[in-house]
Amino acid sequence: MLSIYNWFRYQLPGDKLYKLIRNAGFEATTLWWGNKNHDDYEQHPQLARDAGLVIEHIHSPYTGANNLWLDNQSGEDEFQLQLSCVEACANHEIPTMVMHLSGGDAPPHYNELGLARIRRLVDLAERIGVNIALENLRKPPYLAYVLENIFSPRLGFCYDSGHHLLYAKSEDLLAKHGARIMAMHLHDNDGSADQHLLPFDGMVEWEVIMPALAKTKYAGAISLEVGNSGYTELSPEEFLQVAYERAQKLEYIMKKMEGNNAGHKTIT
Predict the structure, then answer these.
(1) How many alpha carbons lie under 13 Å from residue 17 in its C-beta half-sphere?
(2) Number of H helices, E strands in the chain
(3) 132-180 pLDDT, tens digit each
(4) Is-above-0.85 flag for pTM?
(5) Positive or negative, the Cα torsion across 112, 99, 38, 10?
(6) What are the residues facing 59 on neighbouring strands?
(7) pLDDT for the residue numbered 261
(8) What per-residue string of b and e applies to 208-228 under the rule 16 or more CB within 10 Å gives b?
(9) Cα 159 to the chain's mean position, in Å?
(10) Any residues with CB less than 8 A from the CB of 180 and at least 6 apart, and which?
């Protein structure tokens, strides 16, 4: 199944947005949860389903992620916000929430208070049948700290290829956390900034990444998190068509690896 994030930086009304995504060939989408991009975001689950799309996950707001580790009202407010997003998944029958654990180059140090808050999020997720996937960011130790201290089938990893290249190129995140992968954000960059380019337009080594993902036995969608900032000459329809073709190429590389692992002859 191929998927694309609903905010690829074209200003489109929801009813048109999801029809274009489906017409391009994508079977699934992921949603930003909040009014940063669409004021009517709570209507988008139904709009996406009306267009024939599966909703993989929501992405919760991340601008206050550092507050999770702080012993103050801002920390409690951030916890309550993330709690509401877990509840929104259950209310809208969406299986997974992706969240950030930190932001920027100098977040507060991870600590027991923040870990306790995340445990409470996971406790709720277990009760209502929702997954929480933690994204790799600028500071990989935050991800490791939480995953190594909270063991739950409802808590896992969202692999972000662009962040991996930028912030942890020398670290084998898929070998370390791949057994707990629940979601993916696939996009490219030239190594200088988080550009969210289409795959194969930057420096991500897809012939390495996709086989590594295949080895994790991840069974979810191949999911792009791309934007049009480098492709402003393309219409939304054209951008989506190119994105779909790139997603198909990623799928081919991944399935080729899966076939080789199973001892099957692959078509070339």
Answers:
(1) 26
(2) 9, 8
(3) 999 999 999 999 999 999 999 999 999 999 999 999 999 999 999 999 9
(4) yes
(5) positive
(6) 32, 98
(7) 59
(8) ebbbbbbbbebebbbbbbbbb
(9) 7
(10) 147, 155, 156, 157
Distances (CA, A) of 220 to 72, 123, 152, 166, 252: 37, 23, 18, 24, 15
Q: Which two tokens stand for residue 8?
A: 């690829």
Render pLDDT for 216-251 as a digit per residue (tens, 0 to 9): 989 999 999 999 888 999 999 999 999 999 999 999
Q: Which two three-digit tokens encode residue 256? A: 């080729």
Question: ∠ CA(251), CA(255), CA(256), 5° rounding?
Answer: 115
Give the phi and the psi of residue 259 in degrees, each rounded to 5. -65, -40
Say how many residues make up the chain. 268
- Nearest-angstrom CA–CA distance, 198 and 165: 14
